[in-house]
Design brief:
The complex is a heterodimer. By secondary structure, chain A is mainly β. Helices cover 0% and strands 48% of the residues of chain A. Chain A is globular, with a radius of gyration of 15 Å. The model of chain A has no long low-confidence stretch (mean pLDDT 96). By secondary structure, chain B is of the alpha/beta class. Chain B has a 10-stranded mixed beta sheet with strand order 3-2-4-7-1-8-12-11-9-10, with helices on both faces. In chain B, strands 5-6 form a two-stranded antiparallel ribbon. In chain B, a hairpin with a 4-residue loop joins strand 11 and strand 12. In chain B, helix 1 crosses helix 3 and helix 7 packs across helix 11 (292-301). In chain B, 64% of the residues are buried. The chains are: A mainly beta, B alpha/beta. Chain A binds chain B through residues 14-15, 40-52, 54, 56, 58, 60-62, 69-74, 84, 95-97, and chain B through 121-122, 124-125, 128, 134-142, 144-145, 148-150, 152-153, 156, 198-203, 251-253, 258.
Chain lengths: 104, 390
């Protein structure tokens, strides 16, 4: 998984912003980190937002990545069912949302 | 800073107002509040209007100036403020600041929203604009979903069950039956709640506040004005001991813990310090129960209920009128309704009625009340502490 790291203070971000909120530096490095993480919580969305191009139901998950950042993503339709604190792996990215699968 | 008092309040019913424009809803609430205060409109020095989505839903902006124009206010500063669901609370704080700072001796805070005028899809899409749509939105998350995530964490950590959360739903729906302004009071059973339509597991239909139209307004005044009008009023004044606003993370990744919102905690701590009271002094609170689990989380964040025990207190009746701390005697957002921009001012209206000892679901001998209004995914929070001068 590619994330963004402030060149000056090393704070990490899932999405590239224009400035580091920690030190106001304008420069970031794109770095590769592990796709593995821990599922913190999840919900099954049964009514998708208007205009969202994925058919409900689907599971939205919050994942603490191994690198230390917390991201919001979606569970792949073919994944094993979600479970609190399960190990998950990012398997793709769809329209800027990480897609995860529960590791058996 | 100068002392600030609530001299007048007004509110429409919350629910469907299909034939009334958004500005006329606000005008009705403001006129009622002015009449309640006995203050001449020529004395008004500032107007703040809380609203979230009048642009996308009604095609109308500059609402603060429009409302002021409709009621013939002078050439005064009129400002619309926006903080998603906390817009009303923010408008109230700004009106208080205008008086406290000496910029005005009389200020109006009004909140308004019409959500049923647009198709449901348009309304839900507009509401989702309050999400961090760079970080959380792309996953397909919705606001009910955010609180589904929080509920699961709370349940895992503290053993909060469907029955605990249903106790909140039953209490607030039942309280709503006693409030003539409420949209949908009801007597519900655990079985009916558990059988309601799943929305975002574990959130079900009865765990969600309805979409609503409505407006509420408050007139705040300086001590000199309060002293002058106090004998003309047919109700006691209410003093604003604290009106604070804080910021939290706009996105889930920025929250250290999904069973707490940092903006809630910081706003409560600041408000207690500003008011010179503790959570033990609060007789009642109107807090932001946009979803049933939110009431449990908020009550813990505000220090009114021990951490992790919100569900247990609800189940034991300790948050009912007559319990340890009366939470949402009005019915809350779940039952009274949630016309987003009006909600924070509606809470001030309800607590003021309680502190005047004139509420239809009165908390006995209420002296000090609190309001709590939360916006977005916890990005904006206002907490106010009010004292009745009986």
């Amino acid at each position: 998984m590619r994330i963004f790291e402030c060149l000056k203070c090393k704070k990490q971000y899932a999405k590239l912003g224009s400035v580091c909120a920690s030190c106001l530096s304008l420069k970031f490095n794109e770095v590769e980190v592990s796709d593995s993480g821990k599922l913190v919580t999840w919900t099954t969305i049964r009514r998708a937002p208007a205009g969202f191009n994925v058919t409900a139901p689907y599971d939205v998950v919050v994942v603490d990545m191994e690198c230390g950042i917390r991201v919001t993503g979606r569970l792949a339709a073919e994944s094993l069912p979600p479970k609190m604190f399960a190990t998950v792996q990012r398997i793709s990215t769809e329209e800027s949302s990480p897609i995860f699968s529960v590791v058996a | 800073m100068r002392d600030v008092y609530i001299a007048g309040i007004g509110s429409t019913t919350f629910g469907k107002h299909a034939d009334t424009t958004i500005e006329n809803l606000a005008v009705g609430a403001v006129v009622d509040a002015l009449l309640d205060s006995s203050i001449d409109r020529a004395e008004v020095g500032a107007l703040y209007l809380g609203n979230f989505i009048s642009g996308p839903l009604n095609g109308k902006e500059v609402l603060a100036g429009i409302v002021a124009d409709r009621i013939g206010l002078g050439s005064i500063p009129c400002t619309k403020v926006e903080g998603a669901c906390a817009s009303g609370g923010i408008a109230f704080r700004h009106a208080c600041l205008a008086v406290a700072s000496g910029q005005a001796d009389v200020a109006i805070a009004v909140g308004v929203e019409t959500m049923t005028h647009a198709p449901t899809k348009q309304t839900t899409a507009a509401l989702n604009c309050a999400m961090d749509n760079e970080n959380d939105g792309p996953s397909g998350l919705t606001f009910p979903g955010l609180f589904g995530l929080a509920w699961r964490t709370h349940a895992e950590r503290y053993g909060t069950t469907r029955d605990h959360v249903s106790a909140v739903v039953k209490k607030n729906k039942s309280n709503g039956l006693k409030n003539p302004l409420a949209q949908m009071g009801a007597v519900l059973t655990n079985a009916e709640i558990a059988a309601s339509v799943p929305i975002c597991d574990p959130i079900q239909l009865f765990d969600c506040c309805p979409t609503s139209d409505g407006a509420a307004a408050v007139i705040v005044v300086s001590k000199s004005v309060a002293d002058r009008i106090s004998k003309q009023l047919n109700h006691p004044l209410v003093q604003v001991l604290a009106a604070v606003q804080t910021r939290g993370s706009p996105s889930i990744g920025g929250h250290a813990d999904l069973i707490s919102f940092s903006a809630n905690v910081s706003a409560a701590n600041l408000a207690y310090a500003q008011a010179g009271v503790t959570s033990k002094d609060i007789d009642l609170v109107e807090l932001h129960d946009c979803f049933s689990i939110a009431e449990i989380i908020d009550s813990e964040d505000l220090g009114l209920v021990p951490r992790g025990e919100g569900g247990y207190w609800a189940l034991e009746g300790r948050t009912s009128v007559g319990g340890d701390i009366a939470i949402n005697a009005s019915g809350g957002l779940l039952s009274k309704g949630h016309p987003v921009g009006a909600t924070g001012i509606g809470q001030i209206y309800e607590v003021t009625q309680q502190l005047r000892h004139r509420h239809t679901n009165q908390v006995a001998d209420a002296k000090i009340g609190m309001t709590h209004n939360l916006g977005g995914a916890g990005v904006a929070c206002t907490v106010s502490i009010l004292k009745g001068l009986m």
